[in-house]
Amino acid sequence: MPANGGALSSTAPEAPLPDKEVDLGTWYDEVLKRAELIDVRYGVKGFVVYRPNAMRIVKRIYEMFEGELESGGHLPMLLPLVIPMANFRRETEHVKGFEDQVFYITEAGEKPLDEKLVVRPTSETAIYPMLSLWIHSYSDLPLRLYQSVAVYRHETKATRPLLRGREFLWIETHDAFADEVGAKSQIMDDLQVAKKVYDELGLAFLVVEREPYDKFPGAESSYAYDALLPNGNVLQIATTHYLGDHFTKAFDVTFVDRDGNRRNPRSTCFGIGISRTLAALIMTHGDKYGLVLPFGLSVHDVVIVPIPHKGIVEDVMAKARQLEDKLRAAGFNVYLDDSEDTPGDKFYHWDMLGVPARIEIGRREVEGKFVTLYRRDERTREKVKDEDLQDRLHALSKEILNNIRDRAWERLRNSISDAASRDDIERLAGEGRIIRANFCGRDECAQEIKEKTGYEVRGRRVDVEEKPDGNCAWCGRPASRVVYMAKAY
Ligand SMILES: [Zn+2]
């Protein structure tokens, strides 16, 4: 552990952050800077540096997802960063979807390469040529693989750290099954993996099936997790796709089934945006004092701040050290901040980093055999008897997660309004609401809504069954589904 345990290098408390509901952009940039999460001064547009305070959270998010994927039968792998041009071109719909955003490697030293290389924008065209070598018989299926890597897309829209960059961290799975039933059941498993981890991160989300014209290039159907940002926009943080036999056909992946027939497996892929999940975590829970995080995500679960007074410095320090040992032995990620900063500076720092619990020990606490326990999510203090502290921290860890998750869900629920007409949609879009409406399912309507309001039809919920009870709110034709519309980041 570094000497400062993750403390910020600047010690002077600054003015509180702006209100994130009012000025999310400034709030976000300031948090990334003050909590020393992301440095945007790298010098290449769309590429940022993840500093240790961010990487510790990122690693934890990776562990959570990887653990869930592996317990569902996924195995880790690592594909090269580069894809040969010939392979990249083999599934035409897919290529069209990514063509404009691809980085190419064309030279080495002074010499042009014999074959131009694609820097992966996603890895379907990297893995399928390998699957054609690995899959032969029904006994090779199902095959479930994943990798935790960065992908590269030359985004032309304005880039924003973690939200939209030209390099972003993610996990991608590539799974193959003997039939459609197996593949579609994997889609449901993927949605469960995302739900489980996002629940543990306290995030609220809409799980939607994307409309047909809005699918992943080369997919038959796409499902997404959309998180709500404090400005009313939604952010896609994970997507899973049923690919049918598009890729296995294009790349000649075949297997011999139990009856001796040669067939193409059905496949799926699941993309989990780790950078975006971090952004959603920061924006959903943070406040004007910085990050707010559940236990297990912050640099420390508990920070002990001794508040020594003349005459009892030793007693305060002795109690602080004793508690540190006891809590560490009990499995807490605890840190004793015995630096020379003032208690006020320390409070500011650990608030900024979102440390969920802080223990303050001064003269009263030593004499009264208790501690003052501060919780970051509510910014409140309580007295806890020394002997009750461990139990209280275990309980607090659950309370904080439940509290920030409830707040996130309440905000999401309160952000949704029903629209019955074109006027409703235009008015609610002007107010920045998430809109629920009956919809005809036509691309033309979605295009018009986008042009007139800037809103996107995000799709229909898959976690809740909702049936249309009227005509399309936009065009008045018969409605085939209930969809959610929002401004997407
Ligand atoms: Zn319509």
- Shape descriptor reads globular
How many β-strand runs? 23
What is the assigned CATH homologous superfamily of the largest domain?
A: Bira Bifunctional Protein, Domain 2
Tally of separate helices: 14
What is the CATH topology classification name of the largest domain? Answer: BirA Bifunctional Protein, domain 2
What's the pLDDT, averaged over the residues? 94
What small molecules are bound in this structure? zinc ion
Low-pLDDT residue intervals, each spanning 5 or more residues: none
Instruction: Tell me what the CATH architecture of the largest domain is.
Output: 2-Layer Sandwich
Percentage of residues in DSSP E strands: 25-35%
Helix content: 25-40%
Question: How would you characterize the overall build of this protein?
Answer:
By secondary structure, this protein is an alpha+beta fold. The protein folds into 3 domains: 24-285, BirA Bifunctional Protein, domain 2 (2-Layer Sandwich), CATH 3.30.930.10; 302-396, 3-Layer(aba) Sandwich (Rossmann fold), CATH 3.40.50; 417-486, C-terminal domain of ProRS (Translation Initiation Factor IF3, 2-Layer Sandwich), CATH 3.30.110. It is built from 14 helices and 23 strands. The chain has helices at residues 24-34, 52-71, 85-88, 92-98, 124-134, 180-200, 246-250, 274-285, 313-329, 343-352, 363-368, 389-414, 422-430, 443-453, and strands spanning 38-39, 49-50, 75-76, 82-84, 103-108, 111-119, 143-152, 167-177, 205-209, 221-228, 234-244, 255-256, 262-263, 266-273, 302-306, 334-336, 357-361, 370-375, 380-385, 416-419, 434-439, 456-461, 481-486. An 11-stranded mixed β-sheet has the order 3-7-8-14-11-10-9-22-23-21-20. The chain has a 5-stranded mixed β-sheet with strand order 16-15-17-18-19, sandwiched between helices. Strand 5 (103-108) and strand 6 form a beta hairpin. Helix 2 (52-71) packs antiparallel against helix 6 and helix 2 crosses helix 8. The longest helix has 26 residues, at 389-414. The two termini are 36 Å apart. Zinc ion is lined by residues 440, 442, 445, 472, 474-475, 477. Residues 440, 442, 445, 472, 474-475, 477 line the site of zinc ion.
